[in-house]
Known about the structure:
The complex is a heterotrimer of chains A (356), B (257) and C (291).
Chain A: H1 2-10, H2 15-36, H3 42-67, H4 75-93, H5 100-126, H6 131-150, E1 152-157, E2 160-165, E3 177-181, H7 195-213, H8 216-226, H9 228-233, H10 238-261, H11 274-287, H12 292-308, H13 316-331, H14 334-355
Antiparallel strand pairs in A: 1-2, 1-3
Chain B: E1 9-18, E2 21-31, E3 36-40, H1 47-54, E4 62-67, E5 70-71, H2 77-83, E6 85-87, H3 100-106, H4 116-120, H5 124-143, H6 159-172, E7 177-181, H7 189-206, E8 209-213, H8 217-223, E9 226-231, E10 234-239, H9 241-246, H10 248-255
Helix pairs in contact in B: 3-5, 3-6, 5-6
Chain C: H1 3-31, H2 38-54, H3 60-83, H4 91-113, E1 118-119, E2 128-131, E3 134-137, H5 138-160, H6 162-172, H7 174-179, H8 184-209, E4 212-213, H9 219-232, H10 237-258, H11 263-277
Antiparallel strand pairs in C: 1-4, 2-3
Helix pairs in contact in C: 1-5, 1-8, 1-9, 1-10, 2-3, 2-4, 2-8, 2-9, 3-8, 5-6, 5-8, 6-8, 9-10, 9-11, 10-11
Amino acid sequence: xxxxxxxxxxxxxxxxxxxxxxxxxxxxxxxxxxxxxxxxxxxxxxxxxxxxxxxxxxxxxxxxxxxxxxxxxxxxxxxxxxxxxxxxxxxxxxxxxxxxxxxxxxxxxxxxxxxxxxxxxxxxxxxxxxxxxxxxxxxxxxxxxxxxxxxxxxxxxxxxxxxxxxxxxxxxxxxxxxxxxxxxxxxxxxxxxxxxxxxxxxxxxxxxxxxxxxxxxxxxxxxxxxxxxxxxxxxxxxxxxxxxxxxxxxxxxxxxxxxxxxxxxxxxxxxxxxxxxxxxxxxxxxxxxxxxxxxxxxxxxxxxxxxxxxxxxxxxxxxxxxxxxxxxxxxxxxxxxxxxxxxxxxxxxxxxxxxx
Amino acid sequence: xxxxxxxxxxxxxxxxxxxxxxxxxxxxxxxxxxxxxxxxxxxxxxxxxxxxxxxxxxxxxxxxxxxxxxxxxxxxxxxxxxxxxxxxxxxxxxxxxxxxxxxxxxxxxxxxxxxxxxxxxxxxxxxxxxxxxxxxxxxxxxxxxxxxxxxxxxxxxxxxxxxxxxxxxxxxxxxxxxxxxxxxxxxxxxxxxxxxxxxxxxxxxxxxxxxxxxxxxxxxxxxxxxxxxxxxxxxxxxxxxxxxxxxxxxxxxxxxx
Amino acid sequence: xxxxxxxxxxxxxxxxxxxxxxxxxxxxxxxxxxxxxxxxxxxxxxxxxxxxxxxxxxxxxxxxxxxxxxxxxxxxxxxxxxxxxxxxxxxxxxxxxxxxxxxxxxxxxxxxxxxxxxxxxxxxxxxxxxxxxxxxxxxxxxxxxxxxxxxxxxxxxxxxxxxxxxxxxxxxxxxxxxxxxxxxxxxxxxxxxxxxxxxxxxxxxxxxxxxxxxxxxxxxxxxxxxxxxxxxxxxxxxxxxxxxxxxxxxxxxxxxxxxxxxxxxxxxxxxxxxxxxxxxxxxxxxxxxxx
Lengths: 356, 257, 291
């Protein structure tokens, strides 16, 4: 029986899934241990929560780009929606809900719901389009979301919530607090996010994503990606499946944004711009389309890389750019591909021999 | 045909134009229960276009298609699949990055359903239904002798096996009518021979009607009970294999003047 | 009546977008790739012109020619080093590489010329033509004229020369073009050279209008022009022209009549509406998949 479970965890289909969970849990234990012994640098500690946020957003985007095959250039927009929703909800609840953990859960759930709602609204027009046209529309929506949040003013005082748009027209009673302040974004945010919450969020994301992938809907999503016409001919409603992966991706970005927002005391809308969307896309592509473990690894490396190169100062982003180009060229080079395929085969053969 | 009851498929004066060019015109046919019917004609005669109209990939410009006695006007590709028409494609269209087994499982999409929530929480009903899908798919793979390939990616199958997989996937949707677009293309004589047995078996085992496009005359004459000949988008002739082979018009269309 | 002057200013801004969009659309049409680094070529063009005028005291025309030349060479080099090895790779790999090139150019510029903005010298005659209550600057008029000239030359080049014919052949079917003896790599290089040269022209017009130049100056006009190219139907040269002009006019009108802060949002919203009505852009070709 025990043997059975192990063989199931390690068979070809589930190996990726088992690997992702193992990677996350083991890394978490090691990092927690290091933190308790005080051997983590403050720079590294400060990056823990952002890394978990980017991992969750990347897992979501990989659902969209890798599993569903749609190029999405607006993932940061959904992060933004999640972040500013969560920050506002947390700010509003702070006086009446002192427990930070419960408040964190409420704020993240609110961020997810709001991002999902935006995902549905945006998904309706986006999913009618294909290929590069779909990509540009997600880019456009990312820009629109940024513009809108940059022009939003939200505050509350003893008379309730106050909202205005484009121009700050409201004045709050004494004791009132601005939640969103236009281009200034959110200030004075209580930092209630933490690394453990981030890791839990990653694990939940992985469970949801894998369980959808290995299900009727997951097969339909991948079938629609591989061959649209054949998918329709077996009765798969393409717009439904695409919507599912799009909204799932948006929701995870919302969760990621929520946690991200609650990790800093100030947050400006400009943080979630086109460059951030591109950054997440790079994590996904380098990690491997549809490969969640790879996405986690590449996100960690690419978030840390510019920091690790800090000693190179001005040259670090230049090196980052060159590394990016070199990886793309090398991974698409036939000779390199053959080499790695051979390597993988020889390792796999050894493993098989060992298990017999 | 009077001994048979209502037709599964009834096509009346079907026609389609592409930008002023008439591709198919005045095409009518009937297919009855458990029949194997051939659709033949020279290249460019409009055979695949007929398939595309029957499955609503193209919207016909004229005429009507009745399926199981119901007018199919206004239906989409997906709705035609749900109604019970399944097909294969001339240029094979498999889900290349999915396993052979998963390709067949997609055919169950509309037959065995459960919610996404029950998938996320892996509920007992999810497990039961997934088992049902898996067993049904494996059974189909066995019939088409693909069960040993179940975990391989579809794109890695040899050509002949890919064609068989397309048929298995189409059958997984539980159709009443199966359209096969050049199922023997690219197969060697031995494979074609086996395919003929499989097509007959499919009809007998699943009790469905089959309409097939094919250039291999040995296959067409060997398994079709009736044949319709298309030339320049028009119906040239219709009848039993013997009648078609003796039809001077058909011979002229195939051999030229 | 300000309407007319807004309209002409819109055409002026749109002309710059159109010239940049031509680069996007030509590269897309022939190499089938989204060249995200195109915006950064504009930035390089602006700096080259800046140094030509400020440090070498060259007049406008030679400065422009120098900038065009250097950008064209840059385009060819980038294509040869970064994109050519990926000819058979997935479009996503090419996209990421283009992003890498974009990062590279921005950061190289930052190292070479620092991130502090520089003030672009005024190289065009100041003043303008009175139009009712408001004036339209000479610069705007020159910009529109340059755009029309570029468009006319490019159309003639594409339709009348053998290289232009080869480009059209490559955009239809690269494999068939190669079989007909066309050197596809050479054609792609020429396309990059033309697109990048045009980016330099746009860079000078843009920097003259907004005289503060910095290493990230190409990003926003790049995105806008890319939008314009999609708006008009990516791959279509008249589409890029039309899309650019329309985008400029919409942006200026949105700023004037609706909201300055929300003008970008309005521009992108119009794009989305257009794509929903015409999913392949205003003048784009609808490609039907053969079943």
